[in-house]
Give the backbone structure.
Amino acid sequence: MTKILAVDNDLSALELYKTLFAGEGFQMQTAVDAPAAITRYQQTEPDIIILNVDMPDGGGVKVFERLKTGLGAPIPIIFSSDRPERLPQLLNRPNAVMLKRPVNADALSAGVKKLLADAADQGMAPPPPPPAGTEKTRILAVDDDLCLLEIYREIFSKAGFNIQTAEDATSAVTRFQEFKPALLILDVDMPAGGGQKVFDRMRNLFMDATPIIFSTGLPESVQGLAKNHNISVLKKPVNPEALIAEAKKMLKMI
């Protein structure tokens, strides 16, 4: 089984990586800083590393430098950065892919497949194909965290749902009217009270009783809303398995 080590101080990005690659049959390990990354590397000897170069205090560069000086041959690495053009020395490195943050799940998967194909002469097996799924029940996920929206798209698509996303209150209302979802996943903590605005629009203006899963770092802040009909509250960071299970429960699929 191909082993991947993902190094990132963004927990949402790590959740995306774990969800994406575990579902494709890879063995995943993660680290949130340079010391943990070096330890995990020594313990697991991964086949590919996904590395956030922009980690605080030069953490991403420290990991790269440590691996570069400690290895006889360059390990395949996917670098992610807000401004990849600042890093020409990494762009031209053998066995490397550079992706711009926030990382798109499709681009990430393609990057891994490219590195595995490039390493085929070394006997590295390609990953198994992702499980096929059919879109069925419609879900709209609303959150200002783009990495988290990628997680939602990935896990719900694989589970057989038709998923669309929105990043703010305005686009959420528009998508809701156009898409007519059976379930809404709503970040309560969006800037300027965006989550509350979406909820008020759904319930008070449209008089719509679509089930809603609130995701929030402070569940106690929505205790009043949780008393409404067809409302559930999950604490961030949301576990993918728990989210799928709660969605099916709200949709009366289990």
